Amino acid sequence: MSWLVFSYSLPSKTSSSPRVTLWRRLRRIGAIALSGVQILPEREECLEAFKWLAQEVQQAKGEALIMYVERFAGLGDQDLIERFREARREEYAEIDTQATELEKALETITEPDERIHIQENLEKLYKQHTEISRIDFFDCPEGTQVIAHLNQIAQAVSPSEPRVEIASTTIEQYRDKQWVTRPRPHVDRLACIWLIRRFINPNAAIRYAKEVASNEVAFDMDTGEFRHRGNLCTFEVMVKSFGLDDLGLQVLGQIVHEVDLRDGLYMQPQTLGVDTLLRGWLLANFSDEALEAHGVALFEGLYVALSQAAAKVSAATTRRRSQKTSV
To answer: In what order do the strands lie in the sheet with 37-41?
Structure first.
């Protein structure tokens, strides 16, 4: 693979302020230091970040150079990837340590104000995680583990909801069904449409209407078995009903849940971006068909990425357990 290398120098008489500012900016964009230069993977957003830094260096009367490098002597791509992961691993570890402290504090709270204080601190940790995940170019497994830890605390600090029993069913029973949901589909309905086309029938007939015909299966409407149940959104209900319980779907369900219900129960780093994108489509007055097409593509991409990240976490966990066993 290719890499971007950023080399710069500032005049010797330059005050420490520009140097410190530049160092902080390099950390924020996720660059790692190697033999006096800074490195990022060759990606469009990384190149743009280095270009902005180069302009700042030049404005400070310094010199900056951006290079494309195919290979570093004595270092393979995997070695560099591991260095990037190690940098993120340390940052995730700091969040996890703070999360553990919050978890301990949660066990001793006696006043409502203390619970609110924990929620506020938890929100800060979510924001820190989002910032780190933005520059986690090589999917450090600890990122997924930390967000799972934060979600556990979020559920513990939130008021408990009564357990909702969801009846199980099979995909085969719905393979040839016709479906109906309300017009102007938003997050919950779009996620359900993706699930139907991904796992049940890629060519399923889906109609948008306010009334349900006798031969149709309604979802995310006032009637039918596939609708909100307790504190579960319709997508979560469908996932449980059909027994689709892989980790990628679980995380996707948390994103849909938060965008739809906004109850603060889950905070995945992708949530804000998904919410903004979906609201933009509605403001742009996309047709129902366009919303469906874009929504299916969005959730397919999310599912693939989340499943891949989950697989990496699982593989890393298996390796660590194997290493402990061998020791």
So the answer is: 32-34, 37-41, 3-9, 63-69
